[in-house]
């Protein structure tokens, strides 16, 4: 009897966030996934302004429109200063910038330099966490926010 190939089951994401724009319209989905090289953030976004934008993990799982200030500051359990280029170390929530195309879409995967347990423990504390897209790119050094401008999209993380 011949063996029939069986498709491998896709792994469920570790966490998922439905992302909203400031007008409360949908902006896409963010997912934390486990890959062969560790944890990665997958973003499938639409309806955003073209250009470079900062993406950060924020301390509270609350996304109140239109300004999303309810999401708090950057996720920072180690008490570091802001910026991937800061010699004092970066916030856990400091992620690479993304580029949104002229069509308003961004479909990117960002590898994250954190152990899965460390990241999930920080994100799923008593008040949760959010993913936030900012109006401008992060300069990777200015404390506390990287001069990234206002918050234009936000999603509350839910366990996958």
UniProtKB/TrEMBL annotation:
Tell me the ranges covered by the Superoxide dismutase copper/zinc binding domain, including all copies: 28-156
Q: Which Gene3D superfamilies match?
A: Superoxide dismutase, copper/zinc binding domain (2.60.40.200)
Write down the InterPro entries for this protein, in alphabetical order. Answer: SOD-like_Cu/Zn_dom_sf (IPR036423), SOD_Cu/Zn_/chaperone (IPR024134), SOD_Cu_Zn_dom (IPR001424)
Q: Does the keyword Protein transport apply?
A: no
Q: Which residues cross the membrane?
A: none
> What SUPFAM superfamilies would the database entry show?
Cu,Zn superoxide dismutase-like (SSF49329)
Question: What UniProt keywords apply to this chain's record, in alphabetical order?
Answer: Signal
Query: Which biological process terms from the Gene Ontology are attached to this UniProt entry?
Result: superoxide metabolic process
For this protein, the record's Pfam families field holds: Sod_Cu
Q: Which residues form the signal peptide?
A: 1-17
Which CDD domains would you find in this protein's record? Cu-Zn_Superoxide_Dismutase (cd00305)
Which GO MF terms are attached to this record? Answer: copper ion binding
UniProt record similarity statement? Belongs to the Cu-Zn superoxide dismutase family.
Q: What name has this protein been given in UniProt?
A: Superoxide dismutase family protein
This protein's species is Novosphingobium umbonatum
């Amino acid at each position: 009897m011949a063996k029939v190939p069986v498709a491998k089951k896709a792994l469920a994401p570790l966490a998922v966030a439905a992302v909203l724009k400031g007008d409360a319209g949908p902006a896409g989905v963010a997912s934390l996934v486990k890959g062969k090289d560790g944890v990665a953030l997958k973003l499938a976004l639409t309806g955003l302004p073209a250009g470079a934008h900062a993406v950060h993990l924020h301390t509270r799982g609350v996304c109140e429109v239109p300004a999303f200030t309810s999401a708090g500051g950057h996720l920072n359990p180690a008490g570091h200063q802001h910026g991937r280029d800061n010699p004092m170390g970066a916030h856990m929530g400091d992620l690479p910038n993304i580029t949104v195309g002229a069509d308003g879409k961004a479909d990117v995967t960002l590898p994250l330099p954190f152990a899965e347990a460390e990241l999930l423990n920080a994100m799923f504390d008593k008040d949760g966490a959010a993913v936030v897209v900012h109006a401008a790119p992060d300069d990777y050094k200015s404390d506390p926010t990287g001069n990234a401008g206002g918050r234009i999209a936000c999603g509350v993380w839910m366990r996958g």
